[in-house]
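User
Please review the sequence:
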Amino acid sequence: MEQISSLLAAAAVGGFAITAVAGKFMIPALHRLHFGQTIREEGPTWHSKKNGTPTMGGLCFILGILAHTGHRLGHVQP
């Protein structure tokens, strides 16, 4: 059980590190590809500043966690 806890903690820390680095490159790429949300005119006026915000930024988190978890699972001794 202790090995699983340390594995999960390492996956969380490593996943965050991968996500932080990948986000520096992925968010501008998503801007260039126009993967941004469109704000409707009916909404509040202060929502207009969110126009063009990438909507797939959560993909960085998922990929970072999966990549690091997969890497760590490859090094686990049965």
Observations:
- The chain has a mean pLDDT of 75.
- DSSP finds two helices and no strands in the chain.
